[in-house]
Each structure stands twice: as structure tokens, then as C-alpha cells.
Amino acid sequence: MPQTHSPSMLVFDLQGSLPREKLNAYHGLALVGSWARGEADAASDVDVLFIGFLPAEYDLVQEIKLRLGQVAPARIDAIKAERLPPKVLASQLADAIHFWPERTF
Questions:
Q1: pLDDT tens track, the chain, 105 positions
Q2: Helices (H) and strands (E) in the chain, counts
């Protein structure tokens, strides 16, 4: 079954759900995986790459994941950039659609 959102529609929805007052210039969020590549199907989760979040900000990561989950068409999978090996991170970033800080399309 094809996805019901386009990647740009999903990013727009995700941007609208963010707790902007709690994010700063050191934080980055990107849509990665099958949704970013436009290959998602009904079984695809929504992979979100969290960049620059400190371990002490676990509660903020959980709040963002909860808010994103309210607008996403599938389960949110939170991926922390610092936990990925460099080659895997580079691969994820190659297809990423960054949505925080906000980007214009």
C-alpha cells in the first residue's frame, strides 16, 4: 500500500508539532530512512534522526517523540546521531530531510 503522506507533507506536519520554545541552535531533527527517500509503505515507521541532543535531555527527546507521534502516520523511531557509527550516520544524512531548524522547500 502506498504512503498517505508525501515526505514534504510529513515534514510540514512534524514541524508544526515541535515544542519550539524548548529547542535551540544545537538541536537538529531530520527525517531519514524510507520516508525521506519517498519509499515508505503502510508498514514503514517514521525514522527521525536526533542531532545534538545531550543525554540529560532525555525528557525533551521523549516529549518531541510524543508530539511527533500525534501527527505522524506511523510509529516514530527516534535515532540518536551520536550512537551511529560514522559510515551509518553519513548514509542516513545523505537522504535526510532536515526539519529543525526549519528549512524551506
A1: 345 678 888 888 888 888 888 888 788 999 999 999 999 988 899 999 999 998 889 999 999 999 998 988 889 999 999 999 999 999 999 999 998 987 544
A2: 4, 4
